[in-house]
Design a protein that fits this description.
single chain, 522 residues, alpha/beta, Udp-n-acetylmuramoylalanyl-d-glutamate--2,6- Diaminopimelate Ligase, Chain: A, domain 1, Beta-Lactamase, Alpha-Beta Plaits, 4 domains, five-stranded antiparallel sheet, 18 helices, 15 strands, PucR_C-HTH_dom, CdaR-like_regulators, PucR family transcriptional regulator ligand-binding domain-containing protein, PucR_C-HTH_sf
Length: 522
Amino acid sequence: MLTVKDILQRPMFQSAHVVSKKADLERNVRWVHVLEVTEFETLLRGGEMILSTGVALKDQGVDYVQKLIANDVACLCIELGESFPTVPKGMIELADTYHFPLIVFTSIVRFVDITQDIHADIINFQHQQLSALDRLSNEFHQLTLRANGNLKILKKLQLVTRREIIFLPTDDYPLFIPGLNQQEQRRIQSEVEQAHKVRTWFDKKRQKSFLLKPIDAMGQNWGFILINNDKPMESFDYHALDRATGALAQNLLRVFYTEEKRLINENSWIHDLIAQNVDSEREARAKLNIYPNKELMYRMSVIKMKRPYEMTTDKQTLQYQTIRRIRYLFQQHGVDSFITISQNNAFIVLSVDKQFDNHEKKRMTKVVSSIEENSLELPLCIFVSQIYTKLLNAYLAFQETEDVMRMVNIQDDSTIHFYEDMGIYQLLFKLDDHSLENFIHTYLHPILKYDERKNSNLLYTLKIYLKLNCSKQQSAQRLQIARQTLYQRLDKIEELFGQDVTANHQLRLAVEVAIVANDLNT
């Protein structure tokens, strides 16, 4: 792009000289404009070279220059003459304060010739830029078809803009051009992630400023490109960045669909494992590339959406992206994951922990917390089996996830649910319906019959009372009834049981289990 310094070398500026000593002559000139009015704010867009005979500057030259500076004008050229014979000292001092180029013609010049001459070069330069951008777009497109296409696209962007480039994908490893050590990479990635939804980011440690460009496709964000903007970016830089972003989005989508479809197909053997269609432990381990004698520790998980996909949503894209995000977060916490999709669109995960210590459950909880924070605005619910060491027992692990799902329908609505946290439900789920009903009838029949006949809620009262460790004050508050009403209900319960339930430890335990079983059975 033409600068003020370039233009001063042209033949039509032979009689021109700069009167502001501290002028920044490297300013880019986007257009040439003849201006002889004082109210011009709506006429300017920034980067203009202003030509004037000085008619509008009489008695208000300083204000005139101040407004030009405020509108980011490149420079002011004044033809000295009868209407404006000299440049006032105040105008020069103001121009020097802002390094604003103040130029005078000491002889008569034809403004029309100057505008025509410079505009021809500007238009030619813009045409060359458009041609260069078209060629760059084609290069970017070709690079998407090559191995390590993303890296090659970013290197090309860095080459044409001569600026530092950082690529932070949502679910993959970052790229830095030029390269930085691992510690710096982690620091930058962490700081940018914390600076949520900003357009620019300043690296305080390295004293560098970056523009953030999101990579969006199919209604989802796939990451960001950061480009150094310590030196003001030119139009070409912005257009090159746009084209690189488009090429990266296209490449990420193509690789994403291909890779996820391949992995889901490869992991379909998990269905065979659950259905007990795998003949041997050796065969199952071969699917995971695990040696037969190597120690193995895994869980089965089922991950379900808390609400269905919206009708307008690209269901497959969201499924694939959610799977990719889950796999990436498992990997970040030292856990390998093998994921497939069930018939009811839940995600089945076989997760293999690689660290063999006592913190496996804590890591699993951290994975879930990370999934919650990065869930693409899709709330998830995760049901986890206990730890197994034999892959041929995966069907048992999967049954446990189904048991956990049944329990969650009865209890709370939190995100993660472990089989080992089910307590008494582990035993109750293993009982057949007849045994369960007999147990409930043995210990709760009098109170159930009374509630049915009187349309009362004595069983619920007893449940809350036992849950709150027989605190009458807390129970009355929880039930939102008067204490006297609670006393009457407890007296009636004691009458129905023929004794104080809380006085006999064995009876209390049996009644509490029966209440849980009744919740399960209703």
